[in-house]
Specification:
Chain lengths: ~525, ~525
């Protein structure tokens, strides 16, 4: 058994059963091993950003790491932006990058680069296997890291893949049951008992059905407010679930919401900070004199901590207050942000996975979709656009029985449009809704936000995606995905209904004129 | 004048007149400055790999650096693969990357990452401007570096862009006239005078019309052999120019060609090394006992050195031996690698720029195109695929009066297909010929080459681009570029002829069945 096969067998033994790949010469022995080892589904992406983003989506939906397979430094480089997003989502990935044979590196062939240097900014763990006999053991350690929600980059020189190995490595037992710090919960309970204006700011593992239900009880009992971060890796939403607001992206909207809190209790969440800096606006969104307390961090068991907190403050199921949801009415008339939101809320099927990169178009999607059928809502954690179509791809691989609805602006979709081909090849059940406003609309707002005045002709050319307009029906067709373009809300309703009914990938281009 | 404007004005004063851009919030003040400063053409790319690759192509064709404008760490990350290729081509780029405002970095907002760490592997020079008053001076130094063929990464925190600056910086005078080491030329002459079997291995600035003509005289006079590297940034080719072979990519083909040389004289070239390592094959391609001598390196004036060398060995224009070129006949019948090569050789118009990422399909293109009309031939120097459509974009911006012919395999074209949109928006005169063999054919060969045996079903799934086939006519249409698909050589002849006659971007999909 060579090093590559020892690695593939170690991965499978460690329940890493999916490999998202865009291999090259130095990875051919890994690819060859796939034919000899059962239990690994290998999924080709035609660009590395698809590969890493899919691994992010897979982890978010299954809690289990996938591996990648990338070709040398430039292959890794192409995958880094979505590794960045995955890292910020605490998504574990066994990120495998081929390297030249150890003895070949000194010759500085064209593809030679500093792979470890490239990997470090987006990885928690980086290791180059020194020889074939180390590969399985290093792979096991990478699995161990990835299971804890880390990006573990394992660099695999070609000769360590083709030379003889010792066999598979002992894979550590699945990750330990996570815990939480009891004193942090006690501290949170003490704050809540004071009755001072307090925000429970939640993300990560707290945003499950159960975590949200516990938060509802705690809020009902203590009068605290519960919110989610602006962006969250996965949030259980829809009818029957406790609906919470998120901190608004726009600073001017966030500040008034936060201004009266005396305490913020963080449940996995980060401090509430502005996404960007703006002249004469604060970076930290909490008001002066507001104390921030961390109850749990990423990797903790936040649901157990919330259960303990509910117990400590004496909150029971009956304390949860009923919520009034937005009424859903099938929209007619013009295609507006509001009618689009209603149409989507009505269309979301039970147990759907909604991947949200709708940016400006989707700023009003949250209230109506709280009244939709129960679903999970995934967002971009690292802010690097082009996350949603790859994450949708990986989510669909991880959850083949659930409909994936990817909502994406045209600007964002262009970064990683190659996802559509993988969705076609793997027959994934993903509806991609492209909001074609033909502008980086968020930047039009940010231009004002940073005090740059009114954009003139040359500046506007850098913000617009028109001249020519992109044709998403053609782009989808080019990658083997059926598509339709809609310009009225009636057509959008019909397209959504058709796409939800039918299994397999679809694209709906929504041509925005407002 | 704020920092951003001081930088844009410094760039223009330093003859950096084109900015390839994909900006975000932190770059809005730079974008705003474009409206206030004349003399900068700003070109939008819908993915950062387009931006950096275009800057590479622009430098190769004009010898003048362009700037980029990239958004934070992930924006830089998306551009790194083509920065890698540019670095290996010795293409100078003023690579401008936005950063959060200095005071905002500590808050670890979602887009925060180690930008300097990401930049270093692909840059010769990296600097984060500390304040607005430093920006112009740092920009001038970046120009200075880029003029010497270096990737100079200037990181621009948002507050250094919006705060008040002191004005533009003194830009150093254009780069000094390059020289060469006279003793290295004398050493080369001494070797050539011995009559021992010697290879003059050339790349970079040596491969101009004049450099090649001098090499022809030296070869005629001394009996040495002249070859190019396997890959070269730009080579003058076509009728009336001295036609040289390149060292073959495949090791088994390269070794017999090199085996009898006692000396290799490097004219900017690197040592002849294998592109990849393979089990039981050498990394160094020169035979044992062959001495390697460097005559010039990147940045030297190789044409002047060749002139001196010709003088030293007494070579005159009349020493150049006439060459027999392949006969060009308009091909008919089946679409084969050979007939495609003939069709392209006939179609290349006078003074065309040919960008070659045809990979396996194009391995036989060199001999017939030596008989084509005079043209320049650009290749991938870093081996990261997806280089050709962005480099073609930048070459067309740099040389608006020359037809650009981009030849690219379908696998490679998918990495950076967003180039087509920029070509449409800027109305660039680029014909992109996509060879649709629906497989990473090179990897099929490499699979054998590394001794991985015969690929089974799962391995073949990682090598093929079929199920579904890509439709390049639709993909091009989706980005506003007219396209045609051909499956016969007659249709290919006609499509080429139409595309050459018409100004503006075109795509020709060549469906390969052999």
């Amino acid at each position: 058994m060579n090093g590559a096969e020892s690695l593939v067998r170690t991965l499978v033994a460690g329940n890493v059963n999916v490999c998202f790949a865009n291999p090259g010469t130095s990875e051919m022995h890994f690819v060859a091993a796939l034919d000899r080892v059962d239990g690994m589904r290998c999924v080709l992406g035609l660009f590395e950003g698809i590969v890493t983003g899919a691994a992010d989506g897979y982890y978010r939906m299954t809690g289990t790491p996938a591996s990648t397979l990338l070709h040398l430094g430039p292959g890794l480089a192409n995958g880094l932006a979505n590794l960045h997003n995955a890292k910020k989502a605490n998504s574990g990935i066994v990120n495998i990058v081929g390297q030249h044979a150890v003895y070949h590196i000194e010759y500085n062939a064209p593809l030679t680069s500093d792979i470890e240097g490239l990997a470090r900014p987006m990885s928690a763990w980086v290791k180059t296997s020194p020889d074939a006999k180390s590969v399985a053991r290093d792979g096991a350690e990478a699995i161990n890291q990835a299971r804890r929600g880390k990006i573990a980059t394992l660099i695999l020189p070609a000769d360590t893949a083709w030379n003889e190995a010792d066999g598979i490595a002992q894979v550590p037992a699945d990750k330990q049951q996570a815990g939480y710090a009891a004193d942090a919960v006690e501290q949170a309970a003490k704050i809540l008992r004071t009755g001072a204006p307090t925000l429970l700011l939640m993300t990560g593992g707290a945003l499950t059905d159960k975590g949200l239900a516990l938060a509802a009880q705690i809020a009902g009992k203590t009068g605290c407010k519960v919110m989610g971060q602006t962006y969250n890796p996965k949030m259980a939403r829809g009818r029957g679930r406790y609906s919470i607001d998120r901190i608004p992206y726009v600073i001017e909207s966030a500040l008034p919401i936060l201004k009266d809190f005396k305490h913020i209790i963080l449940v996995e969440a980060n401090d509430p900070v502005a996404f960007f800096a703006y002249p004469n606006k604060p970076s930290m969104l909490k008001p002066d004199g507001c104390d921030v307390h961390r109850m749990t961090a990423g990797g903790d068991n936040s649901v157990a901590a919330l259960e303990a907190l509910a117990g400590a403050v004496g909150a029971k199921a009956s304390d949860a207050k009923p919520q009034t949801l937005v009424e859903l009415n099938k929209p007619t008339g013009a295609l507006t942000h509001a009618s689009i939101a209603q149409a989507i809320a009505i269309a979301i099927p039970e147990n759907a996975i909604v991947v949200d990169e709708s940016v400006t178009t989707g700023r009003g999607f949250f209230p109506p979709t709280a009244a939709a059928a129960p679903h999970d809502w995934l967002q971009n954690m690292g802010g690097s656009i082009g996350f949603s179509t790859p994450v949708s791809t990986g989510a669909a691989i991880g959850c083949p029985d659930r409909k994936v609805i990817c909502m994406v602006g045209d600007g964002s979709a262009m970064y990683t449009l190659q996802s559509l081909w993988t969705q076609a090849r793997e027959k994934l059940d993903v509806v991609t809704i492209v909001f074609a406003n033909r502008i980086y609309q968020i930047l039009r707002g940010e231009f004002d936000g940073v005090g740059a005045g009114q954009p003139g002709t040359r500046a506007m050319d850098m913000l617009t995606l028109d001249r020519p307009n992109l044709d998403w029906v053609a782009l989808a067709k080019g990658m083997g995905v059926e598509a339709v373009s809609v310009a009225t809300v009636d057509d959008f309703n019909k397209a959504l209904s058709d796409a939800i009914k039918t299994k397999g990938p679809r694209v709906i281009e929504v041509v925005m004129t407002a």
